[in-house]
Amino acid sequence: xxxxxxxxxxxxxxxxxxxxxxxxxxxxxxxxxxxxxxxxxxxxxxxxxxxxxxxxxxxxxxxxxxxxxxxxxxxxxxxxxxxxxxxxxxxxxxxxxxxxxxxxxxxxxxxxxxxxxxxxxxxxxxxxxxxxxxxxxxxxxxxxxxxxxxxxxxxxxxxxxxxxxxxxxxxxxxxxxxxxxxxxxxxxxxxxxxxxxxxxxxxxxxxxxxxxxxxxxxxxxxxxxxxxxxxxxxxxxxxxxxxxx
Length: 245
Fold this sequence. Notes:
Blueprint: E1 3-6, H1 12-23, E2 27-32, H2 35-46, E3 53-57, H3 63-76, E4 82-85, H4 102-128, E5 134-138, H5 145-148, H6 161-180, E6 187-191, H7 209-220, E7 231-232
Parallel strand pairs: 1-2, 1-4, 2-3, 4-5, 5-6, 6-7
Helix pairs in contact: 1-7, 3-4, 4-6
């Protein structure tokens, strides 16, 4: 049996990812900032017959919480096969380059960038013990500098200095991480789930949570001949999925 950890997974896309992984027979640790919410999410999955899921209290903006989660999971398994850095925040308003506050930037980066770094560094030893370790950093095509420099990009006018730049930073961390592990069995990619109808965007997105989950799970389960160090958005490139940084 394989073991996976998904952050920010008590609802929305993260919850769907946990469900899809569990349906494939993977034992999933459902990371939730609030443990009670995490337990409720697990209960929903168990009601569907998915008993291979456990709630883990995990506040990715807090070093102590991350290390506590690492110790707790380490008592249950000595290997982690899949890490999905899903937890993320938009950063509030305003998002303009002139009016967004430093506090907004700090809060968004603490979750979207530093949080992914904290969790990755904390669990890298367990991932190293896997024969097929996979890391998926849930990003957004909105973090593509190339696309956002092109007036023909369909979301060109959807600018946001805080959120977009935080995802660009996460993308660069993905590139560097994949480079440093290029001679190993790791596969590390950034994946955009698409503009999905969730609480995150006030349910404005046209995409479904089910499709978003499939896009993420796909790269969590790629074979040893699969890509690494790439950026994927099937919404923007239905043919190959790969989009420019």
